[in-house]
Amino acid sequence: MSTLNAFRSFATYGLAIILMKGFSLITIPLVTSVLAPSDYGELDLAVSLIEFTSLFCTLGLTEILYRFCAPSIHDNKRHLAELTGTAVLAGVVMLAIVQFAAAPLHRQFALSIDINVFRFSLASASLTTFVELPLAFLRMRDRAMMYLGFVFGRTVLQIALMWALLSAGWGPEGVLLANAPVHLLIGAILMVFLLRETGIAFSREMGGRLLVYGLPLVLSGLSMFALGTADRWFLADNVTREELAHYAIAAKLALATSLLIQPLGLWWYPKRLAVLQQENGIERNGMVWTIGLAILCAGGALLHLALPLFVGWVLPAGYAPALQWLPWLILVIAMNEMVALSNAGAFLGNQTVSVFAVNFVAAGLVIALYALLIPVHGLAGAIAATIVAQAFRLFTFAWLSRRNAPVPVFSVSTAMILSAALLPACALPAGGGIGATLLSMSAVPVLTMIALVAARPAMLPNVVRGLRHA
To answer: How many angstroms separate the CA atoms of 467 and 7, rounded?
Structure first.
């Protein structure tokens, strides 16, 4: 791939990820202008259950696609057809299981949201693989514009429907109803496209891979849920719905940190395992890791400086308490993204038990800390527990990858980049005003780039060469 085409794909995926993962950020002003904090807290609790369902129902099929159906793999057309057939069967089974569990979940968490709306949202979430697998197929084939088209269409439809339903007074149910039908529609279109591209077949071999390779990743993903959203289930009985809303808003704003790294991730993750098996693959993986660190450090510092201005200007005053939690949640998101950049070594091979083991232990650790800290410290306890667990994941995956995909977690270059990015934010005095804030924001990317070049003088030439051969 030429340098120009690589950067074009990078920019296209960047826009797509802003629309896809930034959807909750884009809609924050709309939703908060209509919903009171107590209603927003109720919505966030329901969404946590829907997200859990969606995560469970992905079944690791995207990772199986990257690992066993890549274009470079022998007989990949047959494997693609068999994977599509497995996805269809699994989706039907998941739909039935989730509907059976809907009513008990609604009762257990004492949701005030209408049960039928909740069921409909869970049905959409149970068919998540009908969206994620075809989109992953498009990424693997570098069909960036088609990928962007589907993501853009989904986002526009969801925002339009959400605005209409909230304006009509549907409240939290309106937000859920704006997402579910659009998700189902896009999923149907994408699956028709995938079936035309790959055909459909069924095999025990692919079913076995679902169990051996995909299932550990599903369990690992559920462990990830414990590190990201399961704290709501503990907080629900220990803080008010208003406090839960403040926490949810801060968490959504902090997600902007991940948006900054996602264009790089969308371009890099589908091909990093193949790159690691090539000449100079370890060096290129380390180069991308360092670039990702710089993006996250600079981006996190910029968001820490800019988001208080956004909250003060755009959101109702009732949501202002969210700002006290924002810096710590930015740190949590940045650590999670660094884990993703550091764990390549655990994915090499034909099984992913080590990935599951690390995330499972981290999940057990964070659940124990939630149970211990949240009843006493509330939201602060939830954040402290998550930081400890994310640190465990980061250092453990870096250690597991030390031979086949080493990354410079403990290095002079890492320290230089961290210090350069955080210095302007730390130097800004409290109440420094808009002028001082803007000055600090302008200094962050400049100092970070200087540190990056100083730490790795050969970085820029290597980036160009790496993109040419990616």
So the answer is: 8
Alpha helices in 128-169 (DSSP H): 129-140, 144-167
From the list 338, 343, 311, 342, the residue with the least C-alpha distance to 324 is 311
Distance CA 172, CA 31 (A): 9
Q: Convert 101-130 into a string of H (helix), E (strand) and C (coil).
A: HHHHHHHHCCCCCCHHHHHHHHHHHHCCHH
pTM as predicted: 0.81
Q: Outline where 199-255 has alpha helix (H).
A: 204-209, 215-228, 231-235, 241-254
Which tokens in the block code for residue 298? 């600079």
pLDDT digits (tens, 9 = 90+) for 347-382: 776 666 787 788 889 999 999 999 999 999 999 999
Question: Residue ranges of the domains in the chain?
Answer: 1-202, 223-470
In angstroms, the Cα distances linking 48 to 219, 258, 345, 404 are 17, 19, 30, 36
Task: Give the SS3 label for residue 423.
Answer: helix
Q: Please, is 76 exposed, middle or buried when counting C-beta atoms within 10 Å of its C-beta (0-12, 13-18, 19+)? A: middle
